[in-house]
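One record is set out below.
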Amino acid sequence: MSKPDESDYALETAEVPLVDAPVLNYRPPRTRSYAPGIAVVGAGGISFAHLDAYRSAGYDVRVICNRTLSKAIERRDAFFPSADISDDFDSVIRRDDIDVVDITTHPIARAPMIESALRAGKHVLSQKPFVLDLDAGLRLVEIAEQCAAAIKVRFSVNQDETRRRGCDEGRA
């Protein structure tokens, strides 16, 4: 152990042994009475991670939508062989068996899809970055708040805290 200098505000330092974190077999409870039908929109880059997570959790992905059907087929065959495929976003959000729309498209195409899905009464998960224009983002948040109050839908952005730098620099 070393003694701190008088100008230090630290306590004495000491070697601390590493301790393995305990294994906690805990998962948040999953309601058995609600099993939403999920549509994943966008079958590119990050969609594999979303589909893998849904499969691992036992969620029900009912449709994979992509403007290029071959990509939707590829993702369907790899993760949810019984899911439908589509290249028509509007028909997907009109489906009564779809409760949640997970939008993983490029951000340029995403904003109008978010608005349409919310207005269609679907819960929406948006991939990051949420928007490329702050005014568009504020407008979508207002729409989400209106839809949440009127038709009880929720809107969420898949954003991790380590990527906040862009927002701090004035980019959404």
In short: Strands lie at 37-41, 60-65, 84-86, 100-103, 123-127, 155-158. The first strand starts at residue 37 and ends at 41. The chain is about 35% helix and 15% strand.
